[in-house]
Amino acid sequence: PGGCQAFTLSHLAKKRRDVIFPLNSGENEVVTHKVHWLQQPAQEGQRPLGEAIAEGKAVVCIPDMASLDDCNSLFSAGLAACEGRGSAVRGQSSFWCPNFSMNRFSVSDPTAFGSDVVQSCDKILLCVLDHLDNHIPSIFEYLFKPSAEWASRQPLNAKLEQPEVPPEGHLADLCDGLRDLYMMGNLEWSEGEPAINIYEANGYFGAHKDHLALTVLIPLTSPMGDFVGGGTGFWAGNRQVSENPQGPPDLVLKPPPGSALIFGGDVTHAGMPVIQGYRSVFVCSFSTRTPVSPQDRLHGMQAPPQVSPNFKGSS
Fold it and tell me: How many whole angstroms from its chain centre is CA 213?
């Protein structure tokens, strides 16, 4: 994706060891990411962090996944897309929510962004995936790697149903981590994502669940000067909490630009209201591709395929 990274299999031979978290620990002292617990795990034994993320018990924050220059560049590109929305920017996967004061642009929308934005987002996402593969490989093992337990570990879909069709089994042999799945085009994405969101004053994104295995959310602007209010709110309870939660969120995070928030698809969360300024994020939610994945959710950062209205099918 993005055409700027060469795919190699050299890292497949590397033996990786997951970080096992003491159950009362709020932070991983071995690697540079911080764990925010929405629900402390049970008190018996130790469990991989990927399992806690899948169960909606933890949100991970990884610092320095994107440079300030990259963040500023992507935010500027988003603002330029906002300014052009009335004329040139009319991509089907980009939209404006006047009631939410939020602009949302798909990275793959060629009417919104050029190849420089695609390449920058590709580089940032690969940095995040490499960190997860190297330091929290249980995310791939528990949520993405094809297995007999794969379907039961997935979040509920938008119809509140448990997925039933697993990925093709050969992916377990071909892909050793999230980077492999991404580079081989074996991810299913949330509609219109990866995307850049821009929230103006009074802008917000209501409480919702992403319904895919994992979400990566990277702030592009700073709560220390670019906006007041805002942040991402999280409700504890996972599947026991609906997309219309009662009361305020249990946790609100406002990490600095370039950090990556990582959380599971059953977690109810929201973009909190911005009081003033601009809050912008680069966001994507994804699962392992399956035989029933919708075709319009597979292109990722590549431009969606265009089919001529005169095309009558192949013989």
Answer: 9
DSSP character at residue 176: S
Bridge partners of 189, per DSSP, are 286
Confidence of residue 7 (pLDDT cuts 50, 70, 90): very low
| Pair 41, 23: CB distance under 8 Å | yes
> What's the token pair of residue 222?
């700073």
Instruction: Give per-residue pLDDT as tens, 50-88.
Output: 999 999 999 999 999 999 999 999 999 999 998 876 433
Most confident stretch, 73-87, 100-114, 221-235, 295-309:
221-235
Cα dist from 281 to 75, 76, 77, 233, 288, whole Å: 8, 12, 12, 14, 23
Q: What mean pLDDT value characterizes the chain? A: 84
- The answer to whether domain 61-86+99-221+237-294 has CATH 3.40.50 is no
**Is-cis flag, bond preceding 194, omega within 30?**
yes
Whole-angstrom distance, CA of residue 183 vs CA of residue 174? 11
Nearest one of 115, 174, 121 to 145, comparing CA atoms: 174
- For residue 135, the cross-strand partners are none
Angle at CA of residue 271, ends 269 and 277, nearest 5°: 165
Position 39 confidence tier, pLDDT thresholds 50, 70, 90: confident
